[in-house]
Amino acid sequence: MTDEQEISQTNQDGSDEEETQVSPDNQSFDGELEAAIGDLEQKIDPEAVRQAAREVREQLKQEVRDRLEIAAKKRAAEALAISKRALQTEEQEFERFSIWFRIQHIVLFTSCILLIITGLPLKFPNTAWAGAFFQLMGGVTAGGVIHRIGATGLIVVGAFHMIYIYLIPEGRKEFRELFPRFKDVRDVVRNVSYFLGRSKTGARFRRFSYIEKFDYWAVYWGMVVMITSGLMLWFQDRSMAVLPKFFLDMAHEAHSDEALLATLAIIIWHFYNVHLNPDNFPMSWTWLTGKISREKMIRHHPLEYEGIVAERQKLAKGDGKRHQSREVREE
Hints:
This protein is an all-alpha fold. The protein has helices at 3-43, 46-90, 99-123, 128-137, 140-167, 169-178, 182-195, 210-234, 236-242, 245-276, 286-289, 294-300, 302-330, and strands spanning 93-95, 291-293. A two-stranded antiparallel ribbon has the order 1-2.
């Protein structure tokens, strides 16, 4: 046997001796551990364990309830603050018309004014004031140029308005509100009854009353007549090339009479209802600012006002719910 084999045999014998020495100790430790666990199991009362578990659960439930109550109070305070801010806004002003609506209106009435002041002298050419006007303008030709500038503005705003009510969501919404409904008939009947003293209250309107709808649709019809007949008169040679002469004569009469009717409707009907009415005298500035006061909103458009208030309260509640969900997730 070599030296290396003797050394290996010696190491193996030593390891066997160590294992033989450790094994009894391990067996003794395991036995003691099992005995201790057994004693502990005999000392533990299962009912006491269940009671302790119930107490822990109740403590956890109470803690959760306390936290939820605090969070609910916080949400209620925030919702109240949102409602107060909404009411403060309501006490000030509402947006009645958007910038797009106002621009169309400004271009429309500017064009109409130019058409009226240059068109009426042409309808009554033998009057003294018509001659004085043309002298002031620099002659009939200059008046005609100004009239055509106004006509161009009317055509442009008419074309844009068609795009506005068909392609722009805001315009589609406004057009739906302006569409006549059976409620308008009921409102007329109710207002007549109120004016005659047979009813204690008048009609309550949404965004547009039947008076405003009449204004809109009168302009709508008037623009169709005025633009169609005006283009036929503006381009007489081309019109005569495809149409009989009596069509041109009809266009002339329609253009002249519709212009006079539109002028009277604007001065007598529209100006009084919008500006000269005691509620608005001497002028309503909504056409420029787009704003209407809360008082006037409640008086003239109570149903729209109630809808806006209800929508704001709904949004306030929605903000509170979202805040509650966020807090629950954080907890």
